[in-house]
Design goal:
This protein is α+β, with helices and mostly antiparallel strands and 186 residues long. The protein contains four helices and seven strands. The protein has a single domain, classed as Peptide Deformylase, CATH 3.90.45.10. The longest helix has 16 residues. The structure holds nickel (II) ion.
Length: 186
């Protein structure tokens, strides 16, 4: 497995609508594993294929909290979050149901150094294929719902700062233009 380079906003690949995946082959499985390694190393809780330069509809997610020793724990997880087998690899995810609203402080490996509150659906159902080609439905709330929506946004060419008010977006965009990501000012 290898750690991949994460593209930074506003890289053009991050703005493309990613292509549907027609077949799951060994190359795709290797990419999924490399994406997981890249996400864990960062560390992050989700990563979408366009962030590592592949404009295809696949995301990896692991939102499990960690204890003081750095081990995964299910403390503070919702029942729906506990019901999931981690890590998640979602191929061709499609949101089929959205309910309620939730606000969460989001960050992104492609916009390092910036954290902002974003409003999203509090509950989502997502049809997707597993990396083994099985068609399943994921039911998610809390952080997992937030993360799934954030990652699917990447597949549609959107980063989280584009979900903010025009004022906040313009401010962050300006800071990125001025400072790049070497010395980000949040
Ligand atoms: Ni992101």
């Amino acid at each position: 497995m290898s750690v991949l380079e994460v593209l930074k906003y506003p890289h053009p690949v991050l703005k493309q609508v990613a292509k549907k995946i027609d077949s799951i082959d060994q190359d795709l499985k290797v990419l999924a594993n490399n994406m997981l390694e890249t996400m864990y190393k960062a560390p992050g809780v989700g990563l979408a294929a366009p962030q590592v330069g592949h404009s295809i509809r696949m995301v990896v997610i692991d939102t499990r909290p960690k204890d003081d020793d750095g081990n995964f724990t299910d403390e503070d997880m919702t029942e729906l979050e506990k019901a999931v087998t981690y890590p998640l690899v979602l191929v061709n995810p499609v949101i089929t149901k959205k309910e309620g609203t939730i606000k969460w402080e989001e960050g992104c490996l492609s916009v390092p150094g910036y954290v902002e509150e974003v409003e999203r659906a509090a509950y989502v159902e997502v049809n997707h294929s597993t990396i083994d080609g099985e068609e399943v439905t994921l039911k998610a709330d809390s952080l997992l719902a937030v993360c799934v929506q954030h990652e699917i946004d990447h597949l549609d060419g959107k980063v989280f700062i584009e979900r903010l008010s025009q004022l906040k977006f313009d401010r962050i965009r300006k800071l990125i233009k001025k400072n790049g990501y070497d010395q980000p000012e949040a």
